[in-house]
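Holo prediction — 4'-deoxy-4'-aminopyridoxal-5'-phosphate.
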Amino acid sequence: MIERLLQPHIRKLVPYSTARDEFGGEARVFLDANENPFGTDLNRYPDPRSTELRRMIAERRQVSLESVCVGNGSDEIIDLIIRAVAAPGDRIVIAPPTYGMYGVAARVNGVEVTECHLTSSFDLDIDRLKETVSERDKVIFLCSPNNPTGNQLSLDEIRGVLEIFPGLVVVDEAYIDFAKGESAVRLLEMTDRVVVIQTLSKAWGLAGARIGIAIAAPIFIATLARMKLPYNLSTLAQRAACERLSESERYAGEVSVLVGERERLRTRLGELSVVETVYPSEGNFLLLRCSDSAAVFKKLRAAGIIVRDRSHEPGCHRCLRITVGAPPENDELVRILEEFV
Ligand code: PMP
């Protein structure tokens, strides 16, 4: 099923192969890759398959090793997915307001973008989607919880998309660790047309290491692995990720603090006169509609606090997106906004 969605040139692609891939024996002396033999910690190329890291992710997400690919941030994964299934002149579908890189990655590859805006309550407009998509649309990007609106799609809603859309359905779960609802990974049991994207940049605190994750049918994952740059994750990144993934207690503690802070911040921001609406969020951020978002932004900027202005996004008139910080940072944010008249 999934094979028919792959570009013909990608289906035929012969990947770059390293001598270590082909070796088969137990290597002791490494004279294959023109490295410097004098041991610093980083004189050898990294594991091109990031096997240890993928094993840890697979175990945590309860999927097979062959269902997991890792990339240089999920941004690399988004780019690979688009190139696997779309060629210049094809289209992807996005549901704005949403994460901006789907559109950018498509356009960089000469792929066009079909927009099916969310409703005024930021829900998926399935009837409009059905009317909007055409044969040229190869992949739809659903973001759940959605950046910047914070709401999560139910698995039934995603099943609804699978029913009306014959292409690839990507569910970007960058913020899944903060959400109550179920992960779309479960849908892989019923279809090979779903790809779930996750990341270690958010709840796992490794934005600086650049580690994105794709979870999908093994045949699709093998395709991404053939397409990717051979050494897309550095030794440092793989090591940092493995260390961090073994600290589950720390992760759980931080997620629990951030979810608690999100709810505390939501209440406190909702009480401020400059804030009209704080949208409920399943992520580590809140979307606020302000009476005057430009003035709020300016006030925060003067105080050295940077937030994301989303007021020019569809349906986000006068909206700012604010990341949930550490408790003192959140207190400072509220204190500054309280002074605002
Ligand atoms: N997806 C979404 C929805 C995001 O908000 C972001 C980052 N803001 C990303 C993907 C990119 O994450 P990464 O750091 O893994 O490239």
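READOUT: The chain has a mean pLDDT of 97.
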